[in-house]
Input
Amino acid sequence: MKISMNDFVASVDLGGTNLRVAAVDDGGTILDERRIPTQVERGRDDVIERMCDLILDLSSDLRKKKRRLAGVGVGVPGLVYYHRELHESPNFPGKGYFPVKAKMEKILPVEVIVDNDANVAALGEVWKGAARGFRNASLLTLGTGVGCGIVLEGKIWSGTRGTAAETGHMIVDPNGELCNCGSYGCAETYASAPWVVRRARAAADRGESAFLKKLFRENDKATAADIFRLARTGDPASRGIYQLVGWALGIVIANLTNVLDLEKYIIGGGVAKAWGAFAPFMMREVFARSYVYRAEKMPIVRSRLIDRAGLLGAAHMVWQRLGR
Ligand SMILES: [Zn+2]
Output
């Protein structure tokens, strides 16, 4: 397909709650954006069909403005093999491999490229966000899990099969707690939202904080944000939990620095809102554990694009494939 100035690509952010689609031009302008509930309980094929319908609707509306769909990029949580198949996705449950690319290309008239949601978000930050102008950077997203994407020489580093940058499962304490992945003491067991809550609940049960005890007594669904509020008001137990978040992230970034010597590290996701409570400990830990970092400090900053990083990154991945 010969690419013209009026072409756009459709990018998809397939989240657990919402499925978002954007039309993005090669300069990174979002021409249109739509969202529907993901409703994964209706089954994986149903999600694929509704996602493709949304893309087709979007491109038929833009065709009236003389714009043509040139490709589709999809960011999805979980392990994505060879830009094609999904395996073990928390937001897209089902047994075995699921050929996202093949299923979508049966419905859509253009090529579809699939990658992990954190990988595409990292590329988005390099293209238009906190790492704009850099070629080597990493994004860590602190949410339900700890997602990570690594961009090397301006492109997503996907590894051999597509599953690289699972930094959330970097081991920060070999004798730590059992993680969902089957290992122990992964970064995710410190720096993800469910684990912040879990550690806070354990501290409340041990009688370490009257504030936490009260919080969980009044609200069984208390979140990481509630615990951040307590940390800010000075509750030592809540502060200790965010200190652990910073400690774990610091170890991860020290390891990344020692191995890859990146130019910039970006922290995003819901838990990143508690920056003030964990960042000083993170910085201290990176400094203590990486002589590469001590030799020349590389910036560690907050995400700029927040919830648009994935949409922009998935679009940029397609533009790169199209030679832009
Ligand atoms: Zn793990």
In short: Residues 236-260 form the longest helix (25 residues). The CA atoms of residues 148 and 167 lie 6 Å apart. Residues 169, 179, 181, 183, 186, 188 surround zinc ion (CB under 6 Å). The longest strand covers residues 68-76.
